[in-house]
## 1
Amino acid sequence: MAQISNTSNSLYNFIVRDGNGIKGLVDSGLLEVPKIYIQPINERINKLETKPCDMPPIDLSKLNGKEHEKVVNEIVRAAETLGFFQVVNHCVPLELLESVKDSAHAFFNMPPEKKVVYRQNVSTSLKMRYQTIFAPEIENVLEWKDYINMVYSSDEDALQYWPNECKDVALEYLKLSSKIVKVILEILIGKLGVELDDSKIESLIGLKMVNMNYYPACPNPELTVGVGRHSDAGTITVLLQDGIGGLYVKAEDENDVGKVEWLEIPPIPGALVINVGDALEILSNGKYKSSEHRVMTTSNQSRVSVPLFTLPKFTEKIGPLPELVKKDGLAGYREVLWKDYMDNFYGVAHEGKKTLNFAKINSS
Ligand SMILES: O=C(O)CCC(=O)C(=O)O
Ligand SMILES: [Fe+2]
């Protein structure tokens, strides 16, 4: 924290201590991007070097019909290649998705004094946090994003600790999206030729949290990032994005091996984005890809997104499934206590998929 708070104390106090967030700074009439938000050139997103991801969304309702196997294969292929795909005809009502986005706006539109009570160091609850900086003590440049993190432990706790503005819809979203996660996880594990009982599947997604990300309009989006390059730590993420766009995923150019390209996951009304996290990459011994992704901001509209992160319970030991190691003849990752993995994940600056090196064997 020293770095940021020392270099621009008053900015730090305004944004973080007083709970205004980067949203508050933009609302105050900001014309220029403050220095601590300016990314080094190699981290900026050049839209000209990106293209839209043209993978059609996967229709989950077809899992119940004669195209079951085709849909299963689409899911597996997407998880093996990009690690990202979109689903439609899932079980989450579209009105609920609209209410979730509305409630995110309702929370962030509150005055700072209402939000600051949820700030780390102010609130004693670990179940709800309002933050603007991923990790001020380790990141040198800040992300153009405010967010809340709502950790699920029980319905009672959620209704007690999560903000009134969003708790009911966030809880409903968490429950229904968790069903999608379970269906997809069972398919992916099944296709590895491994059988896991229900309690094991549950423990792989035993920790659930809903974040609400708010990216205010930025005077110069080319200089900043909404979220820098990272992979998600957990098993599977379900992401609701609004219609603004700006989520980019790293892919290998199909026509030019080794060449990297950034694909934008286009907003599709009613669709949910699904992505593989580090835990699933480890479990599958690298077969399923936890993708590097990042977010660009826009100059005239604020964007919201609402990920449901599902992660293994902290007490789980996560390593490649033994049947796969036997089949592959080699483990690409070591077994880690999930708590240790998460401590490392939150303790280092994020630089793409480097957080996975904690578990990788022979990582360079
Ligand atoms: O806002 C988005 O589209 C993605 C956010 C994200 O990657 C995250 O919260 O981990
Ligand atoms: Fe992410």
## 2
Amino acid sequence: MYLKNLSLVNFKNYDEAELVFSDGANAFTGDNGAGKTNLLDAIHYLSLCKSYFNPIDSQQIKQDRDLFMIQGKFDKDNQEEFIACGVKKNQKKQFKRNKKEYTRLADHIGLFPLVMISPNDIGLILDGSEERRKFIDNVISQTDNHYLDELITYNKSLLNRNALLKRIAETGRYDPTLLEIFDEQLVNSGKKIFEKRKQFMESFTQVFNEHYQYLSDDAEQVSLIYDSMLLNGDFDTLLKSAAEKDKILQRTTVGIHKDELQFTIHGMPLKKFGSQGQQKSFLIALKLAKYSFLNQQKGYKPLLLLDDIFDKLDDKRITKLMKMVSEEDFGQIFITDTNPERLKTIFNSINVKLNLFTIENQIIRNEQN
Ligand SMILES: Nc1ncnc2c1ncn2[C@@H]1O[C@H](COP(=O)(O)OP(=O)(O)OP(=O)(O)O)[C@@H](O)[C@H]1O
């Protein structure tokens, strides 16, 4: 599966743009603010119906214009697939596959899988545990529809239970039957989510380790550990024993909403002890593991988008990474960099053909390297 071409109208800083891609390595180069990341984001739209960076569709319309259009042709198993996305100010987003409009955007997601690696992702390491739970939830739910349903049910039950705990504290009154019902709902979906996360993490961690060790040349010992209260006991029992504490605190203190992914380097927390390059390598290995997982589950290779990937990585890691993503385990890739000479040198050194685009004042020139 690969994207053959892309056409834009009034998307972010572009009036109009037309690009034809190769099924291997493609790169966008230009100064800061030239619009390199915007092109990656347009590709992200075609694949996942939304921007990677900004959830508000209307803000992607070029300033002072009324609508944007993104169109692209994918090749999937030698069949052409024409995808079009249009957003008009104050109107619902239109999304079409082969000229037929989707009634549910969810039906499109997963058909053209994509993995983006961007400097924005550093929050996965530096921010709170919710970011890391979102990461695993996102990967699992891309290949398992039931998982998302269980998550929705769990979160609803959690809200209900917390609201009840608050009411109990405020009124002093207590309906044990209602609490039992919410507990049962929470335990039911919580256990399923826990089992899926645990099972997923077993294979994911292994692939992650392989990618990290390759990138770092086995120089560093890193680990990715799934930590859940449910590893220490049955959810039902844990919930019952925390009941009094929960009533005092007016919230549910045990459950899979407290799960954490621990990232360590040489046994110490990565957030505090990892260098910026090591943190970036960790992030890349996580995303590449996501890529491998989607590839294995879907049976075809997702697109891989690498935004500003070279900053903070040493030359050895950059070359290893580029070599890896250009080899047969990976498919079509898109890279952004401010420095065209660096890109040319790296791709020449690994003997891989690069389809290079140079962007200046909205003009996109294509030169084959
Ligand atoms: N809705 C919009 N209308 C007009 N311009 C926009 C809009 N959204 C973003 N831009 C412009 O797009 C430019 C940023 O583009 P982009 O992030 O793609 O740059 P880049 O080439 O990746 O830069 P860098 O090398 O700094 O990462 C900015 O100049 C910004 O003002």
